[in-house]
Write a structure and sequence with these properties.
The structure is a single chain. The protein is α/β, with parallel strands linked by helices and 375 residues long. The chain has helices spanning 7-28, 35-48, 59-69, 87-94, 139-149, 201-210, 232-242, 245-262, 292-301, 331-337, 351-374; strands spanning 52-56, 77-81, 98-102, 104-105, 110-111, 124-127, 152-156, 164-165, 168-169, 176-180, 194-198, 278-279, 285-288, 340-343. Helix content is 39%, strand content 14%. Strands 1-11-10-7-6-2-3 form a seven-stranded mixed β-sheet, with helices on both faces. The chain binds pyridoxal-5'-phosphate (PLP). Pyridoxal-5'-phosphate is lined by residues 58-60, 84-85, 87-88, 130, 156, 158-159, 180, 182, 192, 194.
Length: 375
């Protein structure tokens, strides 16, 4: 079995360092909002190239509290994509705002910036691009539109830590950038975790209050907040792992290039594309194949842990049924949802494993194709 991600293999490579730090936290008696939290926030701000960061309990909370900090709520519209994980629009729903969907560019699976302006109304408050699969969006165009129409930008970087657009890290373009440290993310911890980055001191202070029951001073509460703190054990683990993220992301890029090479003679497998001047971090390596569901099933039967991210676009999910959005609204999103297949991808994957994945996929695609033409 070749899994889509092998967290145990990564852990084995850093086990001694991580266990030492975790034991120190356990012995310290300081478990919440301690020295690791503070140090990690500074290290993350430096890494992303922004002034401030606020450590939180999840990527979902980062999106939610970013919207709260910008006073986005009932009656407001937020322009985003339906080709993403549900947390993106869930956060918009939590604050009572309405997601407005734009279609994707089928080359990158990211928001097609050319389609944003036609969706802007007097209620639009923000644009929420998602750097899906670790591929940066075209931030030049998105920021230009935001500036022109006086809109906030919240970047969903949950799959794209360390990714760059024109030499600048994603998350540093908009008003707030949101990250997740869910175990399977490129920088994953051993539980839940998240973080928001910003250059605004006001927004930073607001999120610091919101994450801790809506008050900057203990037992004095200015507004309804939440409990969304990153615990010291997770912060300590993340501080160890942050030292490796550049190396891990570089390896993912090398593995992506190797997959591209292995698939280059197979016309039926469409490999991922990057726009110019980006450093994509391949949270997922996602191809498009015909007869995807049959191919997916066959791969699993052959021990390849391929996955479909995501099987139903968000505008057609029950959770958003009150918006009354119909099939046909987002042609590229709907079309690509039926074709995408993510292959095993993690820093520690071996060349031999990649060869096995590629060979098996090429065979499965050919078999399904001949089965379909025979019918
Ligand atoms: C993982 C993810 C989130 C949510 O992060 P959690 O830490 O699981 O809450 C949000 N958006 C995207 C695109 C994600 O991949």
């Amino acid at each position: 079995m070749i899994p889509i991600i092998d967290s145990k293999r990564q852990y084995a490579s850093i086990q001694n360092e991580v266990e030492k730090e975790v034991i120190n936290v356990m012995r310290s008696g300081s478990y919440i909002l301690g020295k690791h939290n503070k140090a990690f926030e500074q290290e993350m701000a430096d890494f992303i190239g922004v002034k401030y960061s606020v450590a939180l309990n999840s990527g979902t909370d980062a999106l939610h509290l970013a919207l709260r900090a910008l006073d986005i709520g009932a009656g407001d519209e937020v322009i985003t994509v339906a080709f993403t994980f549900v947390a993106t629009t869930e956060a918009i729903g939590i604050v009572g705002a309405t997601p407005v969907f734009v279609d994707i560019n089928p080359d990158t699976f990211n928001m097609d910036a050319n389609l944003i302006e036609e969706k802007i109304t007097p209620k639009t408050k923000a644009i929420l691009p998602v750097h899906l699969y670790g591929q940066p969006c075209d931030m030049d165009k998105i920021m230009e539109i935001a500036k022109k129409h006086n809109l906030y930008v919240i970047e969903d970087c949950c799959q794209a830590i360390g990714a760059e657009f024109k030499g600048k890290k994603v998350g540093s373009f908009g008003d707030i950038g949101c990250y997740s440290f869910y175990p399977t993310k490129n920088l994953g911890t051993m539980g839940d975790g998240g973080l928001a980055v910003t250059n605004s001191e006001t927004l930073k202070n607001r999120m610091i209050a919101l994450r801790n029951h809506g008050g900057a001073v203990r037992y004095y509460h200015d507004e309804i907040g939440v409990n969304s703190r990153l615990d010291e054990i997770q912060a300590a683990i993340l501080r160890v792992k942050l030292n490796y993220i550049n190396d891990w992301n570089k390896k993912r890029r090398e593995h992506a290039a190797f997959y591209n090479e292995l698939f280059k003679d197979c016309k039926d497998i469409e490999t991922p594309k990057e726009i110019d001047n980006v450093y994509a971090v391949y949270h997922q390596y996602t191809v498009k194949v015909p007869n995807r569901d049959e191919v997916h099933k066959m791969l699993q039967e052959n021990g390849i842990g391929a996955m479909i991210y995501y099987p139903v676009p968000l505008h057609l999910q029950k959770v958003h049924s009150h918006l009354n959005l119909k099939e046909g609204l987002l042609p590229h999103t709907e079309h690509d949802t039926k074709l995408v297949l993510s292959l095993p991808m993690f820093a520690e994957i071996t060349e031999e494993e990649q060869r096995t994945v590629a060979k098996t996929l090429i065979e499965c695609v050919a078999k399904c194709k001949s089965a379909m033409t025979a019918v």
